[in-house]
Amino acid sequence: MFLEIISIAVLGFIALVLSVQFFQIALGGYAPIIPTKSKVIKRVMKEMSPKDGCAVYELGCGNAGFLRAAENKFPNIKKLVGIEYFFLPYLIGKIQVSLRDSKIKILKKDVLRFNMNEADIIYCFLNKPMMAKLKEKFKKECKAGTQIISYQFGLPDLEPEKVIDLEGGRKNKIYFYTI
Ligand SMILES: C[S@@+](CC[C@H](N)C(=O)[O-])C[C@H]1O[C@@H](n2cnc3c(N)ncnc32)[C@H](O)[C@@H]1O
Fold it and tell me: Is domain 35-178 annotated with CATH 3.40.50.150?
């Protein structure tokens, strides 16, 4: 009986968290929880050349797939930080990172309320409204020379330095900017 009550409470809690997140994503303009495919991450890694001691951020990091790949490929990166707002992907990311010897830190925060002044490279896979809001933040907070890499969604009215057009549809592009 006691176990049944605990199980119902846990399932109820999970259902509540998922419903809140569903409505935030559907109505609040938050980007949905979809991971970047590994072949896209590999392509981004090919294009990156992080300087020694630099700081790399993933905004809306989910399970931090980009940061884990960057840490594997570039041991010269000093700081790797993931920002994730929603509890479930945050928890999954934390667990995945804790299973390896890693410098990656995952913070449970809203990217729009997080200061990015320390970042040298920022990776995002978010959505159109978020990129419009982030453009202003990047301009205000990022130091000169910060590289922004965004999958699928560019920064509105800002000419990218480079765009990689991947096969598989109109949206399948990687945008590169330097602030
Ligand atoms: C499309 S997924 C990308 C996940 C991961 N970056 C990747 O490329 O595999 C977008 C992620 O951003 C998170 N997210 C959406 N809005 C956010 C916000 N305002 N602040 C922090 N994270 C957010 C979502 O929960 C989700 O995990």
Answer: yes
